[in-house]
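Hi R.,

Here's the input for the magnesium ion complex you asked about:
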Amino acid sequence: MNQALQRGSEYFSSQFGGAPDGLWSAPGRVNLIGEHTDYNEGFAFPLAIDKRTTVAARAREDRLLRVASSAFPGVVEANLDALTPDALTGWAAYPLGVAWAMSRAAAGDGGASSGARLTGMDLALTSNVPAGAGLSSSAAVECAVAVALNDLWGLGLDRQELARIGQLAENKVVGAPTGIMDQSASLLGEPDHGILLDCQNLLTESVALGFAAAGAGLLVIDTRTSHSHADGGYASRRRSCEDGARAMGVGSLRALGPEDLPRAADLLDEKTYRRVRHIITENQRVLDTVAALRGSGAAAIGPFLNASHVSMRDDFEISTPELDLAVASAQELGAIGARMTGGGFGGAAIALVRNDDAGRVAGGIARSFARAGYTAPAIFPVTASGGARRDL
Ligand code: ADP
Ligand code: MG
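And here is the predicted structure with magnesium ion in place:
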């Protein structure tokens, strides 16, 4: 048993006694490119990372759900018959929200009879995905719990259904209006592959990254900052995108391409125009990145990463001084490309760097943060890894 599984199993015993029926895990993700495009029915290109949340689970005879997490004190209990979105708060809203969404899916209709044949469960979570760093620790929790319940409840739901269940939990129970990217990455990741996600039809395609072949890898620069207006900022960006789509007479910004930009400039106020321009150009950059990977290899995608950052900084206005410094430093130190990643207003940046340069780039970024008087960032490599799975 590897260390993570050992830890998960021991933590389960410490909380619930005895041994779990099994262990499941799901990874966090970084988004290589395609930011705020998911709720605009556009393209995103995330990858699952080598940091995972493990859930040790055991079915019960009754209808009680008990969840514990090594990241939080205490055990939270809920009855399967009394699960309602409004009643769930705090961190337990993520795992119990998944149980709620899955019991509805099991009933097929979300009606009163939902999940009548399901058993209670003891669930113990351990994780090495940093929370709130833009690496989607929330999806890692949701997807680990989703695959565990899917197996122990014998539901046979496919990965796309599981992704929607995770999203439903996050939207309706946690109350975060997020898209489906994070769950898709966590469920569908493969080693050395990114997941090209078309959020209009939820079609996904695994695309070889070839980072190792290019002698390069991704560094995450977690600025360890998060800004209090992040939720409001996210919601207001969504609204601007909806306003822009309405004014342009389309159901979503996905329907627009670069050729629509002049008309958008005429029709929209200056700020909405910039929001719309980010989405339109970002969708194109995702497709360009995939084409460059396939045609020329990883060393060719730098310009798209860099342009994506500029678009988020200037047009979508979701970057921060810390993220800008991380990206600029990485670029000055010779990274192939760099951009902030995730929803913005704090969190992490990524830099694609040649392996020989990684130490120097990381050291240089840390020094520029120290010079600026910023909180020391956490800088670490990530590799594209496999998606949610049963481990034991
Ligand atoms: P991100 O997904 O970018 O890490 P979010 O704010 O979406 O940030 O999700 C973080 C939240 O997810 C935490 O505040 C906590 O409620 C929940 N969470 C993350 N990791 C764990 C964990 N190991 N155990 C329990 N809850 C967790
Ligand atoms: Mg999240």
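One thing worth noting: The chain has two domains: 3-206, 208-382.

Cheers,
M.
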